[in-house]
C-alpha cells in the first residue's frame, strides 16, 4: 500500500486517527486493498504525512481489533484474510457508527445512564421487528 | 493517560515554576511533565511566556522559584552526558554567528558522541545551505534551518524547539514536521515544541498544552481533546443556573449579547456537568484552534 493514498486533513473536526481508520476501512471494504496485502508501516505513514506515529498506530490497532487488519510476523500489518466472513455484518454495523456515536454523546450530555438508553433502544428495535412482521 | 512519572524518569519536567519580570508575573506556578516518546505542542499567544518556560526548563534562565529537570538532571546543573542527548532550537539562533556554516557544524559535531555527519551533509544540500557562507550572512529562515540541522544531528533523546516554524517557508516547515514524526517513530525521541501554527501541532503532536496568563490551562492527549473538552453557551435568561465555578471550568467569557460561554474539561469517561442537561444551554465540541481562541481570546 502506498501511504499517499491516505488524505490527512489537520483542522478537520474528525481527529486524524479516525480519518485514517475510516479511509482504510473504505479501501478494505471496496477491495482496493486485498486480503493479505501489506499496508504501509506506521513509520512510512508518519513520515509521508508528517503526522505523529502514535496516531497512526492507534488507527491500526483499532482496525486490528475490528478484525480488518492482522499483524504478521516478519511482515507488518496485512489486510485480514478472514474479512469475507466478518465483512457482511461488520460492514452493515459500520453504517451505524456515526449515528451511534452521536447517540452516545447525546446520552452522555443528558447525563442518562447507559442502562436506560439501552433499554429504550432495545424497545425501539423490538417495535421495528413487530412493525415488519405486521407488514407481512 | 494519567501517568505519574517521577521527575527523574521523565525526559523533561518542572514543578511550580514562578517567574516575573519587573511587576509582570510571566509564569505563575507551572507544573509540566513530558511523557517519554511523546510529542508535546505548546501553544500560547505572543508574550504568553512560552520561550521563558522553555529557557527555564533547559536551565538557560533561572526561575524565581520551582524546579526543573532534563533527562533526570537538574536543569541548572546539567551534566555533559545529558547535554549530549539534548537537541535545542532556540527562537533566534545566534550562537557562533561569526563562523561559517560548515565550520560551525564541524566544530559542534566534535562535542557530540552520536553526531550524524551524513545527516548534516544531506540536510545542507536539501535545504540549499552553502557550507562556506558565514552564519551572519544568512537570512533568519536559513539561520533557523542550520539550527535545526544542528539539533537533529545530535540524534537527541530529547528535542526542544522554540517556535521552529516562525521563519520557515511551508516546504521547510513540512520537512521539519516529517523529521520530527520519523524521529518519534524510529527512535522514540521525546519532543517539546512551541508554536502558534495550530495545524502543525495537529499533525505532529501527540499532546497539547495551552499556556495562558502565566498558567497551563490544559495539557491533554490531542486525540481525546474532542471528547474531553467542550464549550457551553449559557444564554442570558439561563444565567441564574450558573454557579460561581462549574466543575472542570477552564475559561468563562461574557459575550456582547449577554450570554456566557464556558470551556469545560472532563475525564474521558466522566459525564458533562449537570448544567449541560439544561435544554437552554448549548454544548459544542470545538476543534483545537477554536478551543484555543475560546480559552485565550
- Helix % of chain A is 55-70%
User: Distance N terminus to C terminus of chain B?
Assistant: 28 Å
Helix-strand sequence of chain B: EEEHEEHEHHHEHEHEEHEEEEH
Number of helices of chain A: 5
How much helicity do the residues of chain B have? 25-40%
Low-confidence segments of chain B, ≥5 residues, pLDDT <50?
none
Radius of gyration over C-alpha positions of chain B, nearest whole angstrom: 21 Å
The topology string of helices and strands of chain A comes to: HHHEEHH
Query: Which structural class matches the secondary elements of chain B?
Result: alpha/beta
Beta-strand residue fraction of chain A: under 5%
**Percent of residues of chain B in beta strands?**
25-35%
Give the overall shape of chain A, derived from the CA principal axes: globular
Beta strand count of chain A:
2
The biggest sheet of chain B amounts to: 6 strands, mixed
Q: Biggest sheet of chain A, strands in spatial order?
A: 1-2
Main interface: chain pair and counts? A-B, 25 and 34 residues
- Mean pLDDT level of chain A: 85
Number of helices of chain B: 9
The Cα radius of gyration of chain A reads: 18 Å
- Assembly state: heterodimer
Total number of strands of chain B: 14
Amino acid at each position: 500500500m502506498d501511504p499517499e493514498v491516505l488524505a490527512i486533513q489537520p483542522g478537520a473536526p474528525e481527529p486524524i486517527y479516525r480519518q485514517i481508520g475510516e479511509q482504510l476501512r473504505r479501501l478494505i471494504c471496496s477491495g482496493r486493498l486485498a486480503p493479505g496485502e501489506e499496508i504501509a508501516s506506521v513509520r512510512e505513514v508518519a513520515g509521508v504525512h508528517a503526522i505523529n506515529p502514535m496516531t497512526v498506530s492507534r488507527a491500526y490497532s483499532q482496525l486490528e481489533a475490528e478484525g480488518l487488519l492482522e499483524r504478521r510476523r516478519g511482515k507488518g500489518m496485512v489486510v485480514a484474510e478472514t474479512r469475507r466472513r466478518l465483512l457482511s455484518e461488520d460492514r452493515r454495523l459500520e453504517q451505524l457508527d456515526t449515528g451511534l456515536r452521536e447517540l452516545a454523546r447525546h446520552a452522555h450530555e443528558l447525563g442518562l445512564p447507559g442502562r436506560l438508553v439501552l433499554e429504550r433502544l432495545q424497545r425501539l428495535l423490538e417495535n421495528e421487528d413487530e412493525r415488519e412482521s405486521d407488514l407481512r | 493517560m494519567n501517568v505519574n512519572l517521577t521527575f527523574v524518569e521523565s525526559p523533561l519536567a518542572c514543578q511550580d515554576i514562578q517567574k516575573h519580570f519587573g511587576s509582570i508575573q510571566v509564569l505563575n506556578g507551572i507544573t509540566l511533565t513530558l511523557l517519554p516518546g511523546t510529542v508535546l505542542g505548546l501553544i500560547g499567544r505572543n508574550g504568553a511566556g512560552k520561550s521563558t518556560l522553555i529557557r527555564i526548563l533547559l536551565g538557560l534562565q533561572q526561575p524565581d522559584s520551582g524546579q526543573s529537570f532534563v533527562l533526570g538532571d537538574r536543569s541548572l546543573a546539567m551534566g555533559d552526558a545529558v547535554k549530549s542527548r539534548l537537541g535545542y532550537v532556540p527562537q533566534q539562533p545566534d550562537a557562533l554567528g561569526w563562523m561559517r556554516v560548515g565550520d560551525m557544524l564541524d566544530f559542534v559535531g566534535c562535542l557530540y558522541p552520536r553526531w550524524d555527519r551524513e545527516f548534516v551533509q544531506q540536510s545542507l544540500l536539501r535545504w540549499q545551505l552553502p557550507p562556506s557562507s558565514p552564519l551572519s550572512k544568512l537570512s533568519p529562515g536559513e539561520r533557523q534551518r542550520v539550527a535545526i540541522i544542528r539539533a537533529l544531528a545530535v540524534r537527541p533523546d530529547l528535542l526542544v524547539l522554540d517556535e521552529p516554524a516562525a521563519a520557515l517557508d511551508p516546504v521547510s516547515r513540512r520537512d521539519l514536521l516529517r523529521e520530527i514524526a520519523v524521529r518519534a517513530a524510529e527512535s522514540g525521541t521525546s519532543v517539546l515544541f512551541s508554536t502558534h501554527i495550530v495545524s502543525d501541532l495537529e499533525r505532529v503532536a501527540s499532546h497539547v498544552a495551552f499556556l495562558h496568563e502565566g498558567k497551563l490551562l490544559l495539557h491533554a492527549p490531542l486525540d481525546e481533546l474532542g471528547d474531553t473538552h467542550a464549550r457551553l453557551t449559557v444564554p442570558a435568561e439561563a444565567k441564574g443556573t450558573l454557579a460561581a465555578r462549574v466543575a472542570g471550568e477552564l475559561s468563562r467569557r461574557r459575550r456582547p449579547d449577554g450570554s456566557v460561554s464556558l470551556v469545560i474539561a472532563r475525564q474521558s469517561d466522566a459525564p458533562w456537568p449537570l448544567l449541560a442537561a439544561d435544554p437552554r444551554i448549548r454544548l459544542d465540541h470545538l476543534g483545537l484552534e477554536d478551543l484555543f481562541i475560546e480559552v485565550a481570546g
